[in-house]
Amino acid sequence: MSKRLIAVAAALLTAGATLTGPTATAAPDSTGPNPTSPNSTTAVTHTYDFESADLDSNYDDGETSGYWVDRDTAQAHGGTKSARYRIRSFTSAGKPWIQWVYYSPQQSAALPVSISFWVHTTAGGPANTWSAAAYAATTDAHDDTGSPTAGWQYTSVTQTSGTWKKYTFTTTVNTIGKSELYTAVGIKATFPATRTYYIDDATVTVG
Fold it and tell me: Global pTM?
C-alpha cells in the first residue's frame, strides 16, 4: 500500500473524514402519476465491477478497527479486479464499507432497494463468522444513528474458504422530501482478528 493510502486511512480512523471520488450516476426522478406510491417507481440498476475508479465512495469503520479498502487483482469474480477489504479488528464492531450516493431519488414512501454482491473469503465456515453488510437509507451511513443502525442489514459469511458467494439484501426506503439516497456494501467484524475479504460485481437496483 502506498504511503498516501496509508495516510488517508489514518486520517479517516482518527477524524472520521470522508473520501469522495467522481460522482456516481444519479437515479432519475419518478415519472409515475403518484410519486408517493411504490407502484409508480421505475427500477434502475447500477452496476459496479471495481475495474476502474468509477465510484462516488467513502470508507468508514466507526473508528473501531484498522482497515484498507482498495482494488486488487488477487481475486476477481468477473473481470480482473475486485474490492479488497483487509480488516484488523480490535473489537467486535469493525465495519468498513464502500458507499454510493444517488441524487434526486425517485419520490416514494416505500422505494424498493435491492443490493447484491459477491464475497470471497479466506476464512470460511460456520465458526467465528463475520458478516456481509448492506446499507440503504436517506441518511449518510456515517451519520446513521438508528438502533442498531436502521439502514444496515447483515448476514453471516459462511461459505467454504477460498470460494465466492452472492449475497442479496432487499428493503424499502421512504424518500419523500429527500434529495439523496445512500447505499453501501461492506464487511462487519464480529470478534478481534485480522482477515481479508473481496467484494465484486455489486448491483444496486432502485425502484
Answer: 0.75
